[in-house]
Amino acid sequence: MLHKFSFTATKSKPCIRLTIRREWRVLSNEQKLHYISAVQCLHRLPGISHMQGAKTRFDDFVALHVVSTDAVHNVGHFLPWHRRFLNVYETALREECAFTGALPYWNWSQDIASGRPLAESPIFDPVYGFGGNGADILDYAGSLGKLNLTADNGWVPPSGGGGCVTDGPFSEFMLNVGPGQFNTTERCMTRAINDHMQRFLTPAMVADLAPLATFEKFRIELEGLPVTETLRVHDAGHNAVDGDMGDRYSSPGDPLFYLHHAFLDKLWWDWVGINVSSRQEDISGRSTVDPPYVSVTLDFELDMMMLAPPVTIKDIVDTRSGWLCYIYE
Ligand SMILES: [Cu+2]
User: Fold this and answer.
1) How far is it, in rounded angstroms, from Cα 299 to Cα 280?
2) Most buried of 65, 95, 171, 272 (most Cβ within 10 A)?
3) Assign residue 145 a region: left if phi > 0, alpha if psi is -120 to 50, beta otherwise?
4) In 3D, which of 69, 61, 130, 139 has the Cα closest to residue 307?
């Protein structure tokens, strides 16, 4: 049984200075380096969670995701839980690593629209980005395993890469949590950037989400396998970067995780923005993957274990609330 920290402050502060989350490529070089150095700082700090092999403060977040994975995917609170998770990560960057900006996001559909290989995206820049592909590994099978290429579910063949990321600010990054649910293996961060995923990440795939009439349809269409028959923007985004990002459990080991999920969070924000009065409090879906489950409501608690106090979905459906205090641009 895990011990929870006792939190002194479980009330939110009022939202006074709204921060604006922006797409990576519109940040100045200085802002990009400021963000990257804050992430490196988090990775230098000792962990506090003592969860699942976590040694660094950065590992704490990987560990929280690993132990929460089966409870927070393919359920009604998938988007709310990840919104709060990003918020706690961003708060750690601010309060422990002197980060003064807002969490950036990565709109990969802009890269797809460019028609160029994904690896040429500015997000993978070795200086003003997150570094590039992993080293080529012979016969790398991808995080989806040796693929049944003809499967109806749209799985795609792996590309090159699969080994350690060899350039950029995170090439020296050692991970301690993962891979998978139970390992705590010290290792480099890997990627296998996969252009076969491009067809699931087009501007049209993004545009198809906003008109969906209910949260139920929206969340399912966004998240993807195994509820949908083919990949959707959530899982295709993970598998387009692959390596650690393709790991269902320990994907937050790649710092790009937070920018991909911030974009998914923006897509929810965009969807709500079309009709705030009816959509902001539209929440649905089952509470657990397997029965017995209840329906997720606004009172559902988002558990951050020892990393932060729990909040309810109601506390975070409005991004201008005190807990969150941000908007997207
Ligand atoms: Cu997740």
Assistant:
1) 14
2) 65
3) left
4) 61
- Mean pLDDT in residue range 73-93: 98
Return the structure tokens found at 312. 């309810």
Sign of CA dihedral 295, 265, 241, 308: negative
Measure 196 CA to ligand 1 centroid, in angstroms.
22
Question: Beta strand 19-21 with 326-328: parallel, antiparallel or unpaired?
Answer: parallel
For 214-242, what is each residue's pLDDT tens digit? 999 999 999 988 888 888 999 999 999 99
What is the predicted pLDDT for the residue at 210? Answer: 95
Task: Report how far ligand 1's centroid is from the alpha carbon of 255 (Å).
Answer: 13
Give the pair of three-digit tokens for residue 74: 């393919």
Alpha-carbon distance of 272 to 293, in angstroms, equals 26
Q: Cα of 41 to ligand 1 centre, how many Å?
A: 23
Exposure string (b/e) for 14-41, b if CB count within 10 Å is 16 or more? ebeeebebbbbbebeeebbeebbebbbb
Mean pLDDT across 164-193: 96
Ligand 1 centre to CA of 73 (Å) is 6
Rounded CA separation 217/221 (Å): 6
> Would you list the DSSP string of 281-308?
T---SBSSSSSS--B--TT-EE--GGGS
CA–centroid distance, 132 to ligand 1, in Å, is 22
Instruction: Give the DSSP letter of residue 27.
Output: S
| Maximal CA-CA distance, the chain | 54
Contact between 177 and 184 under an 8 Å Cβ cutoff? The reply is yes
Q: Do 134 and 192 form a contact (C-beta atoms < 8 A)?
A: yes
Report the C-alpha gap between 101 and 329 in whole angstroms. 14
Hey, how many other C-beta atoms are within 10 angstroms of the C-beta on 300? 21
